[in-house]
Design a protein that fits this description.
The chain is an all-alpha fold and about 290 residues long. Among the domains are: about 5-65, no CATH class; about 165-210, no CATH class; about 220-290. About 65% of the residues lie in helices and about 0% in strands. Helix 5 (about 90-105) crosses helix 6.
Amino acid sequence: MSGADIEPSNDGLDLGTLETITPEEVRAFREYYDRVKGESMVALEFWLEFRPDVMKRYRAGVRHATSPEEADHPLLHAMTMLHFYAVTGYEDGIRYEVKLCREGGATKAEILDLLAVAFIHGSPRGMRFVASGATEQLRDWVEPEPVEHWPASWGFDPEALRSGADFSSQEVTSEDTERIVSWYSDTLGEVPSYVSFLAAHRPAFLKGYRSRFEHAIRSELPKEMMAYALLNLNVVRGFGEGIRESVLLARAFGLTRAQVLDSICWGFFYGGVDAIGIAERAAGDLIKTLE
């Protein structure tokens, strides 16, 4: 299976006819989910039985969430959904997204890097369901055949997240704080309000957060995935400041406008259409500058 095989348009549905569904469509749809996620989705099976038009309109929306420019990289949204499910503790989603990501070409190291990023916001609650939803697959992991599953310009670069603070010591110095604050001003062009607040009032807490942020990605995950996943999470949560920070990080890491808009649009499915308006107010000016 190639990475493109997990693309939503391969789900076997004829979306030219939304009000009805044929037995052939049902069979192809279930085979798609069995193949890429290892199981049928209970939520969609409900609508498949009682209102297939609702399910088909939902799947139409899924197909349009990704831009044509990024149609060959469905792993981006699969990894993003795994990140979100890990943060929120959705065990079923964690289980089937781990399989989907593997089918899309992700390595075990990339999955673990992503889950480490998710742990920053998911904390023990989220990781409790990561443990129950992903441990068996990760223990029995067989690496997929190597495929080009990331955009050509994306790459592993943990140094891009490094502030230069000394994390070998739990003590916090004024130099540590200055380096952390400078990373934001130099990388983003702005210093988020929480950074200024913690630098002034709880510099040790800020250093502790940065220690986790800077070292979550250590093996293979492209740095761009950090910005993509955090942008999506903040859209879902409706956090304007987080959206802006994530778009600034995306811009610093060279994400395209299409990639940023894809991350935002995928946030609709759990954040609702109002979340898109929040993204516009928070970062619309930045998005217009992207290529």
